[in-house]
């Protein structure tokens, strides 16, 4: 109930902002016509607006949402993925991948040592496979030999 | 006659050593993807797209590789249904009804072999159906004008939830979100910037491949984390295969009937593979009647849904190739592949890219034979894969997805987008908002808008042009039914499918 209502309200806001922005598009070069860049977005904004009102008025029953602990876990995993993306170029593929895969294995319940080995193993295998067999270059980072 | 000469040309493309190799690799990978827990066909194909892309494969080779993966995943999905009573995806649900009881009786190898043969028959017949039907439909679709196309795209969204879908309003919401994402970027017709906020990376719009991988693969990872599913499903054992010619002949009529029904429900918008396998199974049960022991391990109860499910999967390629309108998640992902290779699907595909289309169709035939040959002797290897615990598998899958995305343009920003889409996908799935319409919206958005503007500029802004021809009115009616029917028949069908499964579980507990 509450989940659908929150989503409905957010979508309604999105529809209004999206539609309002469409109505502010500058007139295209060569003069306005019957149908312009704003026609389709305005149509979508009306459709989304009406459906989100329906969701607010008639929400479905909620699924079970995870508890605070699991939510923190999920947030942690997302942060790990963002860190992986940020470190990939500066630190290099092998180090950041070992880190990312090991942490994910560990959060899914593997023992720390096994997680680390899985991380290192697949980082090295994927790196070798990509750089030498498939010839797609992944960043070497600080482990660069040259 | 014309078709046969095209098909021969197609074989000339598919039988080059290079493409044969890609078909074999695809069939192998596909079965793997289908067999591994937590990797559906759509997910698997999505992860492989960026890789095929950055490896610089030719369009024909990429498509052959990915259609082989698609066909293989359908084969692989049945392994866990039969051995562990865990359907890999919704269409495989009906296979558990008789497949698992057969495995309990120590006939797991026979059940797997029978399902492989039935799958083969289903795919083969459906590919033949595709060969006959697709050119006819493509020729018919040449009459479509922009108004008809606009109606057709709306139809695709309306029927995407399927007859068994739950809440049509959520399908509309999902489609609208996808279409809205598609409007980001520089407008092709006028050059106006839309929703770019002067961010250079947004000028070309949001890359749908990144969105697909994020929505499917990353949200799946988050679901595994949430449910703490780290342990594998346990070891499954396999007996020695003892299949006689008589057993195969016995399931032939069943497979033929199942294939036909499956193909029809694959081609029709909104029916899809789940309905295909469900109808095949229930009809077979009715035809055989009291003589069969359905639900207790009747081989025909394995053959019918498997033939139906595979035939439907191939049938679903008909609307995707001829109209550019996919009917399922996986065909939507294949459409993404086509668009990113700069190939515009639709009726002109059969004229402009005849070699490519027929090459892919021929590759489907070749791939099927490979899959059958691969699956009967090597099923033991795939069975072992079932016991790989997700706690190691899911991180590796995430890594492969991330590497693929990164290799497209070597940009960390793409990875941030991927993770962002993963979070969005997780939240939407938690709220029962389907993801496939979002993806389809991103894919079809530009074409849909172009046709709408084209139609409206022909009529000088008169919206009645959208409902002006008999054909477009017909399409609108079907689209409306597609949204309304789930409200009327949906609950009945869903209840029946659940009841069929519940009955089985009760019997098991009674044993």
Mind explaining what this structure looks like?
The complex is a heterodimer of chains A (146) and B (511). Chain A is mainly α. Chain A folds into two domains: 1-63; 66-145, no CATH class. Chain A contains five helices and no strands. The mean pLDDT of chain A is 86. In chain B, helix 7 packs antiparallel against helix 19. Classes of the chains: A mainly alpha (146), B mainly alpha (511). Chains A and B meet through helix 1, helix 2, helix 3, helix 4 and helix 5 of A and helix 8, helix 9, helix 17, helix 18 and helix 19 of B.
Question: How many domains of chain A, as an integer?
Answer: 2
How many β strands of chain A by DSSP? 0
Main sheet: strands, sense, barrel of chain A = none
How many beta-strand elements of chain B? 2
Distance between the termini of chain A: 59 Å
Cα gyration radius of chain B (Å):
22 Å
The whole-number mean of residue pLDDT values of chain A reads 86
Q: Which residue ranges of chain A are poorly predicted, with pLDDT under 50 across at least 5 consecutive positions? A: none
What spatial form of chain A do the alpha-carbon principal axes imply?
flat
Give the averaged pLDDT of chain B, no decimals: 83
Q: How do the helices and strands follow one another from N- to C-terminus of chain A?
A: HHHHH
For the largest interface, the chains and their residue counts are: A-B, 63 and 64 residues
Q: How many helical elements of chain B?
A: 21
Based on CA inertia axes, which overall geometry of chain B fits?
globular
**Beta-strand content estimate of chain B:** under 5%
**Pairing-aware structural class of the strands and helices of chain A?**
mainly alpha
How much beta of chain A, percentage-wise?
A: under 5%
Distance between the termini of chain B: 57 Å
Domain unit count of chain B: 1
